[in-house]
DNA sequence: TTTACAGCAGGTGGGTTGTT
DNA sequence: AACAACCCACCTGCTGTAAA
């Protein structure tokens, strides 16, 4: 059977999408995102008419993302009524295994961070590289937060502006509040850059002129912040560029995380910005 | 008091255009 | 070719309001 299957293209690297081979259990299950059972002439290709194929999609239990399918194929005359249940059981086992690995990974991460957590007072999160929460204290959060990255602040509901600190297999995320400020120094030279000082860590990153302009405007607006309309007026001279203003702030927020708050647009609480002009004579 | 709905603000993926 | 800037379309979430 395996030799005969090889002649059909049941080999590593083969493409079994509907677009390539027409109706088939694998490609159709991927397209429909549902279990599919095909017998004999229900296949599009004639050389598959002596086969049955039963396919069941497998999803990531954490995100719901479609990962692939389990397919059971064989001679059409040997199709057993329980084959569909077998494929379904395989799917359940795979998804359960993925979930168990995920939980074990988070538990190992939590255990490895225990010494650090014991020495930490106040709210703290331990998350993996994708933002899945292994431990939270102080403030309840969901199962997942935005994925942390080096030299990147992020906003966590209930925590405010946070700067992640690298752990061996994950991140320690603590809010910056009270005496723990995020200090920004915006250099409005011909190549604008932003110096970020958060606790013991500091870094500098280049920003576009437009983003530098937005940061300077939000700094000038103070805690009251600016509406998208006001930002459009300040950036473009009229209020007809709301979409462009929103898009630019959205991209700025993606770069700088929780440093820029919304509703209205403003610098987040705990963020202090100073503006310098690196180029001599630059206004 | 609850629910459904509309309107609005804001977020974001992707396309286009202009510049370097 | 790569990048920045701009724009559009579509989506989500919040809020106010009317109806049940």
UniProtKB/TrEMBL annotation:
Gene3D superfamilies, A to Z: 3.30.450.40
Name of the protein this chain belongs to: Transcriptional activator of acetoin/glycerol metabolism
